[in-house]
Each structure stands twice: as C-alpha cells, then as structure tokens.
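Long-time lurker, first post.

We've been arguing in lab meeting about whether zinc ion would sit comfortably in this protein at all. Half the group thinks yes, half thinks no, and nobody has a model to point at. So I'm putting the question to the forum: if I give you the sequence and the SMILES, can you give me back a predicted structure of the complex? Inputs are below. Any interpretation is welcome too.
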Amino acid sequence: MNEKIAVFDLHCDTVLACLKQGAELKRNHLQLDLERGLETAERWIQTLAFFIDDCYRGEDAWNHFFDQYRLMRRFLEENSEAIRLWSPTSFPTDPCCQAMLSVEGGAVLGGKLERIGELYRLGVAMMTLVWNGENELGSGIDGCGEGLTAFGKNAVREMEQNGMVVDVSHLNDAGFYDVERLAKKPFAATHSNARSLCAHPRNLTDEQIRCIIDRRGLIGLNFYPLFVNGGQEYAIDELIRHAEHILSLGGERILALGSDFDGADMPAAIPDIKGLENLYQSMIKYFGTEITKDVFFGNAAEFFRRVTRRKGKKENVL
Ligand SMILES: [Zn+2]
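Top reply:
Settle the argument with this. Predicted structure of the protein with zinc ion, as tokens:
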C-alpha cells in the first residue's frame, strides 16, 4: 500500500533521543526520521518535544532546553528542503515536514513566568505542564496528589495570553481539573488514551475526555503498550478500541495522534513512523475515510488554526 497520507502527530521525543545518541534527524535508527516520515506522509506536521525532567531547576533546566533547541535549529538549517518550522498561518501543501516545537515539562521555566514569552518567541507553540514527578507548576501522576501550584496557575494564564497551547498529558487528576477550571481556551492532552479501557493514571477518565470534547480541545492517541493494554504486545485493533471509545463519547472533532515515538517502546504493528500506514488502513476499516483523515490530520490542524491564531503579535522567529 503506497497511498500517502496526511499526518499531524502531537508528540515525539526524537530530538532528545538524537542528542543522547548523536543521531541525525534526516536518517537514523530511531523510531522517527525525515526520510521515513516523508515516504509515509505527503503532508506532515510533527510536534517535536524538548523534554525537561521535573528534577531540573533554575538555569540547569533552561540549559537543558537549549541543548535540545540548538540541535533542532541545526536540523532545520541543514535539512531545509525536508523540514521547516510550523507556523499557525502556514499549513503544508508540499512534501515537507512542518516542525511544531513543544516543551514537555514546565520545569523549563525555572520558576520564571517571563520564560513563557521567551519560549514562544523561539517558536515553542505548546507546553506540557509537568512530567510524572513534581515541578514548580504542579504534580504529575507520581507526584504528591495536589493540583497546580499558584505559580502553575499563573503559568497557564501566561501561556494563554501568549498563544501557547496548554498540554495536560502527565498531569495528575487534581491538576487536570485545575486547568479545566482556569483555562479560557481549549487545551490538549497530546499523548494519552482512555482510562476506562486501560486503567493507567496517564490515561484520561471518561469525564476528562468529555471535558476536552466540551471545550473542543484535542486528544492524541498514544501508541505505547503500557497505555494501551497495560504493557503487552498488541494488535492494532487494541489501539483502535481506544479511538472507538473516545469517538463513542462524541470525540470525532477532537481525536488525533500522539505517537510518543522515541519516548516509549512501540508495538510491532507500529514500530516506527512508517507503521502509521498500517494504522491508517486499519482505521479506515473501522471508521471510514473521513473520520480517519480527521484523526490523522484534520482535527489537529483545525485546533491549532483556531486556538493559536493571534492578533497583533509577531510570527515566530527562528
Ligand atoms: Zn510524555
């Protein structure tokens, strides 16, 4: 099957994997590279997350971000024919990867709200507030069980004012509902599945899924077996069951992909970005072409067009 597809993936950790392993983005042995991505997708927006563990503090956190950011910038400069920075006003029409930059881990702020504006000016479109532990903003699923801190609440407000999308994946439940109460704009859970099918706290309860549907937010399906069935090898149908469940709650406009490539082990059915062809063909059998295309690209594209459109602000510079 050589039909090329449009792909909008909300989460991968490929930049840090490249940094750790000295690998290139153009071609590598990881789960995602430009060559395989462009063989698979004719239109491709890829969110590339810079991962900042909750344990980083102050300047260490910022330096850790910059190590990844510098590498990404080199990738953009050296592969300009294959990848360019995404902007909310330009959606891809040619065979080129559009890179949406995000930060996974609000520890990057080092406790300084003004860093949000700096990140935004560097091209960071979205931020996951916490990872699994605790940082200045709040707690992840292994944290203390409390919600957002006062700083975390201010960070959400500041992100919204800057046009940066709030990502609630990894937040504990108390933090999720703090965002739900506080946020004026739709928010995303970029790489989380349905907890009623796989009882892992990284997944979303039905009530949380409904909150995101009511706000016309976004949920990205995560391929990691631990979040699909507790950690067993799985056939693609098991992942599709999560999609089916979210759709059954009314999620046909908010469901998207959040692969977690290079941040987690992948199933044999989707070993790397080329495996998206398998998922696409399987999804069509269950849901038909229109919904499958929306999940693969349309819903995320519509969300970012709607949520990140700003008036009177300069476009990202890089
Ligand atoms: Zn993650």
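For your lab meeting: Confidence is low (pLDDT under 50) at residues 312-318. Strands lie at 5-9, 41-51, 83-85, 97-104, 124-128, 165-167, 188-189, 218-221, 255-257. Whichever side wins, do check it experimentally.
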